[in-house]
């Protein structure tokens, strides 16, 4: 039997004045799964999370927390780490944890060993990685059924990030449903399922293979990679640089060849599978242009 649905949205829309920040989004998160919510800045991810929690009213549609409309009581069964972490900056780490335990009526959680040196420091005097870890401890202290994490590892080093992901995996192994936003594609690959948002809409979902959906990018190999990159960018193509490797999405190899030819840059072109990030870029361009310039 499948695990229960802990978070749900059905055709949820949120408008701010004339602006539609979230447009007809439907999603489900079940206990035990880690679902990644991806999208460019401003795509609507935080707004979705805040509506799921009932912290922001929907303009239309229905959200569910543990199968019912969100309310204060059901929020007590949820852990939430917002982008700003939600810690009180005028309290120490230890005081923050005591405060949260008091609010939930639970015992004060044990500080992990690596946080012990910071226990009695004010939040603002603690490195960001330790703040994030403490926010996790606080959000998980009452054994929630679902956890919402808004860019939980932003700005922390690789080791701290790996630790936080260990904690996320421990939670899902224990049956907790996790919805997590991230800008790190390596983290997206650790999710069981992905939801891609662009301009308020859900534009793709499923496994990494599902969301990439066979899309390809053009890899450009040439000596003069700086001229290649400049010419492609000047022509309005979506060119990216990874070291000296130039790649282009949403453009045919013929179009890339034509632009490079005009700029008198000699290059070898290969169609390669797109990454998640490139797929997101393509879907964003599909929205902002009338269509991908693949055909042009
Ligand atoms: N209270 C508000 N009033 C007006 N516009 C808002 C409000 N909250 C969010 N928005 C707008 O809604 C859009 C979606 O914002 P949201 O914070 O959900 O995006 P996001 O995908 O979480 O972005 P980021 O990755 O930068 O956190 C943005 O254009 C934002 O400016």
Automatic annotation (TrEMBL):
Matches recorded under Pfam families: ABC_tran
Sorted UniProt keywords: ATP-binding, Nucleotide-binding
The UniProt record lists the keyword rRNA-binding: no
GO molecular function: ATP binding; ATP hydrolysis activity
The ABC transporter domain, residue ranges: 7-224
Entry protein name: ABC-2 type transport system ATP-binding protein
Organism of provenance: Branchiibius hedensis
């Amino acid at each position: 039997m499948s695990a229960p649905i802990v978070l749900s949205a059905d055709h949820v829309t949120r408008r701010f004045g004339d602006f539609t920040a979230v447009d007809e989004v439907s999603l489900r998160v079940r206990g035990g799964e880690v679902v990644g919510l991806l999208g460019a800045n401003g795509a609507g991810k935080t707004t979705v999370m805040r509506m799921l929690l009932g912290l922001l009213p929907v303009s239309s549609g229905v959200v569910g927390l543990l199968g019912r409309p969100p309310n204060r009581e059901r929020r007590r069964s949820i852990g939430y780490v917002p982008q700003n972490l939600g810690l009180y900056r005028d309290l120490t780490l230890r005081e923050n944890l005591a405060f949260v335990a008091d609010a939930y009526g639970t015992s004060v959680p044990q500080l992990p060993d690596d946080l012990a040196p910071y226990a009695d420091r004010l939040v603002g005097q603690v490195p960001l990685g330790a703040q994030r870890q403490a926010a996790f401890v606080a959000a998980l202290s009452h054994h929630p059924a679902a956890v919402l994490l808004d860019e939980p590892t932003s700005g922390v080093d690789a080791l701290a990030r790996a630790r936080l992901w260990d904690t996320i995996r421990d939670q899902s192994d224990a049956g907790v449903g996790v919805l997590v936003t991230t800008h790190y594609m390596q983290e997206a690959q650790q999710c069981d399922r992905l939801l891609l948002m662009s301009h308020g809409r859900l534009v793709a979902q499923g496994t990494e293979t599902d969301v990439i959906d066979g899309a390809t990018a053009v890899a450009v190999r040439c000596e003069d990679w700086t001229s290649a990159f400049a010419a492609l960018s000047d022509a309005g193509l979506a060119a990216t640089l990874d070291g000296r490797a130039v790649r282009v999405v949403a453009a045919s190899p013929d179009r890339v060849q034509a632009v490079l030819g005009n700029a008198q840059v000699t290059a070898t072109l290969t169609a390669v599978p797109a990454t998640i990030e490139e797929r997101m870029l393509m879907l964003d361009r599909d929205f902002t242009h009338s269509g991908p310039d693949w055909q042009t």
